[in-house]
Specification:
By secondary structure, the chain is α+β, with helices and mostly antiparallel strands. It has helices spanning about 15-20, 30-35, 115-125, 160-170, 245-255; strands at about 1-5, 40, 45, 60, 85-90, 95-100, 140, 150-155, 175-185, 190-200, 205-210, 215-230, 230-240, 280-285, 300-305. Strands 5, 6, 7, 8, 9, 10, 11, 12, 13, 14 and 15 form an eleven-stranded mixed sheet that branches. A four-stranded antiparallel sheet has the order 1-4-2-3, with no helix packed on it. The longest helix has 12 residues, at about 160-170. The termini are far apart.
């Protein structure tokens, strides 16, 4: 029998979701079977899959030990030397300024030198995060940027902040503004683009269609041309929807690919910058319905300093 005490970052979760994260070796079929057989108890009583956990709940699991192997604690990334540009930080979240070229999450080629690993190492070294004390939570990113896109990324320090930030972003109460250099001059100088994006995961690219199609997702991109010179335009972009490669593919689809974009543009080898000229320049919180623990962020805005490529247009 194994006992597990529910901590503050576990509270609010459904019991089945929590156990799936805490014990990845426990198959879902057996999890629900053991719930039916009353071999999983909460505070000494029968537990149900949809029970909402509270801090201080005691879970008792009458299950073979080999099925209760805890999540592997990846301690190596916590020992890296973080190199973060922190724009804002409080007890619930931090906003960092990501440089172009840094991966946000690990992939098949890179596990340690990622933005999330740096953030977790930063909090670990400050004494604000210890995986040994957590059953199911780790500090997490709330928005993502392509590897070669610079700018602001928000990370949650605790589970309550993560849930609220995800809801704030889902309901579009966090506004994101981008700066980009595009080839040519878009016309009209200010517009709202609508399209339908199809993702090819194997090719790691997307296609923008003009008309709806099976599997395509609607995308909406607002832009305003700030100025044009030397065959390029500095464009301010409000991202209404946030799909993979949306800005890059959307501007390419109207004949104005991002300067330096080797995937969706026409940049030749040795021409232009090393990365697409795109920056998540501003984040601003505009709450309409939200009244939770992050209410103090209402009307606050934050800016990126990763704008060197745009300096000649300022």
């Amino acid at each position: 029998m194994k006992e597990l005490l529910v901590g503050p970052n576990d509270a609010g979760q459904r019991l089945d979701k929590f156990l799936s994260k805490a014990f990845p070796s426990l198959p879902a079929s057996l999890l629900y079977k053991y719930l039916r057989l009353k071999r999983i108890k909460k505070n000494g009583s029968r537990a149900h899959a949809d029970d909402r956990l509270c801090e201080g709940d005691l879970l008792q699991l009458y299950i073979n030990d080999e099925l209760l192997e805890v999540r592997e604690q990846q301690t190596a990334p916590l020992k890296i030397r973080p190199n973060l540009q922190v724009v804002y930080e409080d007890d619930n979240l931090l906003i960092v300024d990501k440089p172009a070229g840094l991966l946000v999450h690990s992939d098949d080629r890179e596990s340690y030198h990622t933005l999330i690993a740096q953030i977790q190492a930063y909090l670990y070294q400050k004494g604000e995060y210890d995986p040994a004390q957590e059953n199911s939570f780790a500090p997490a990113l709330c928005n993502r940027l392509d590897r070669n896109t610079a700018g602001l990324v928000v990370a949650a320090k605790n589970a309550a902040a993560l849930r609220d930030l995800n809801e704030i972003i889902k309901t579009r109460q966090m506004k994101k503004t981008y700066l980009a250099l595009v080839c040519g001059t878009p016309s009209p100088p200010e517009a709202t683009l609508t399209g339908y994006l199809v993702r090819d995961r194997e090719a790691a690219r997307v296609t923008v269609l003009r008309h709806p199609a099976p599997g395509a997702k609607t995308i909406v991109t607002k832009y305003r041309v700030l100025r044009s010179a030397h065959g390029l335009s500095l464009v301010e972009i409000d991202l209404v929807t946030g799909r993979t490669h949306q800005i890059r593919a959307h501007f390419s689809s109207i004949g104005h690919p991002l300067y330096g974009d080797g995937k969706y543009g026409k940049t030749g080898r040795g021409q232009g910058p090393r990365h697409q000229a795109l920056c998540a320049f501003q984040i601003r919180f505009e709450f309409k319905e939200y009244k939770g623990i992050l209410s103090y962020l209402d009307k606050k805005q934050f800016f990126s300093a990763q704008t060197e490529v745009f300096d000649s247009f300022s």
